[in-house]
Structures are given as structure tokens and as C-alpha cells.
Amino acid sequence: MIPQNTGMGFAKPFGMRKKILIVDDDEGIRDIFRIIFEKAGYAFEIKSSAKDLLENHFSFPDLILLDKQISGIDGLQICRHLKSQNETKDIPVIIVSATPDIGIMAKKAGANDYIEKPFMITHLLETIERNLNKTRRISRKKV
Which among 14, 70, 121, 123 is least buried, having the fewest CB atoms inside 10 angstroms? Predict the structure, then answer.
């Protein structure tokens, strides 16, 4: 007897994985994000410097996770730059920082959201998913 679920009949098409651009100069933090996003099933690109963001040398993601302090450059300034560019203004930016009152500063810089360090993995993933879902709703309305 042949099992019912053999062959391609049981296969389901894979949806496009959402891509996250992670920008952090701390190697340990980058490794943590790598592990979290691999396990969560996201596609991602990791940058250790903000230079590529300022020059738009990256493949455009669905969301940007940006450290507030990157090798002497203020991540809030980078966020303002991204939000002022036509190519990147609609990409959600989440600022990550241990700085007190980061939420207020992030919003003033145009960030869509923020995450305070240290953070719970569940909070990180919920924040990312919430912002990706907002983007999906907006793009559906534009069609």
C-alpha cells in the first residue's frame, strides 16, 4: 500500500521569507541576532558599519534593525537619513539601545519602533512581526 502523503501532493508552496537588515558593530550582538533570526526563519543581512547604509549599498530589506551607537556614528542620525530618502523612507526602522529614554529619541528620529537592551527574544520577535504586519497592511491598501 502506498502512503497517501507521498510525492508532491503534500508539498505546500513556501512564502517569501521577510528580510531583515541588522546593523550593529558589536560582534557578540550580531551573533545573537544571527542565531535568533535563523531559528525564527527570517532571511537577513548583517552589517557591522553604517557606511553602507549612508551610501545605500545594501539590498533593500523588509525591515531594518539598527543599533543606536555604531562605531562613533549615532544610529538616530542614520535613521533620519534613511527616512529622508525616497528609496528607504517606507522601510520600517527599529532602533536597538540600552540608552535611557530611547523610545522618545527613536520616535523623534523617525524610527517606527525601538527595543531596549537587554531584551527578551519574544519581545524582539513580537516587535519585528508587528512592524512587518503594519507594512503588509499599508502595501495592501496601496494596491
Answer: 14
